[in-house]
Design brief:
alpha/beta; Chemotaxis Receptor Methyltransferase Cher, domain 1; Rossmann fold; 2 domains; 10 strands; globular; binds S-adenosylmethionine
Amino acid sequence: MTAGEDPGFAQLAERIAGRTGLDVGAYKDRCLRRRIAVRMRACGVASYGEYVAILDTRPAEFDLLLDALTINVTRFFRNPETWAWVGAEALPRLLLAREGRLRAWSAGCASGEEPYTIVMLVAEVLGRLHHPDWLPRLHVDATDLDRASLDTASAAEYPPAAFSEADPAVIARWTDPAEHGRRRVQAPLRAVVHLRRLDLLRESAPQSAYDLIFCRNVIIYFDRPTQERLMDGFAARLAPDGLLVLGKVETILGAARQRLQLVEPRERVYRRAG
Ligand SMILES: C[S@@+](CC[C@H](N)C(=O)[O-])C[C@H]1O[C@@H](n2cnc3c(N)ncnc32)[C@H](O)[C@@H]1O
């Protein structure tokens, strides 16, 4: 039996949708069940019905469940080879074509490491191009479903582990020391990142004509029709020649394949065709 056929599961899905608006039906069944099972085990219950009863009486469990469903692992310069490719092959061309103006969207930005990485990389590339006047020309939308992650993104202060994949010299240039060995992203970089809660399953992009859309390690949790719908939406929101960067194990499915041309297979980078 799939989770969707269990009446207890339907009740659970209803509770989650009622409280958060999240449509769990669009998530892959197996992933979803595994995550919910972790919380059920932690609560010592064996059926979805019993778990719903716990959610109804223990509001804190709701937050733990949402945390488990929207896994928000991320890091600065996660998968450095992807950023190396974007910094060497994509940004110089885009920045020259757009006269230093750039609009990016980190869709599913978690706690902010990805959008701040975009800003740091642009700053680094513009520095190499001897183009100091970059700040007013850069706009990065950063959206996620999870409010707690967005709060962390807004504080922009991170422990050393968040920088484990990054070049220490780059991090030293764009962050300042904070308490307990943490580092805070510098104010001018924070100012160009526009954080907002957005459910990718229900809402479209904050703006259109993005030069870069990063949606990494997000669609992997969604079922195929949802992935296809999202890809169509991303294709429509890219500027001509704009790039979509997916996670390393993610790929474009369905009709969007006509509109998004694969330009770097290893790093899963696609360009809007036409
Ligand atoms: C694994 S993190 C990816 C973070 C970052 N993109 C990266 O690759 O390092 C997945 C993020 O997707 C978000 N997410 C899951 N479902 C979502 C939805 N329906 N709408 C918006 N964000 C969602 C989660 O809250 C989580 O922060």
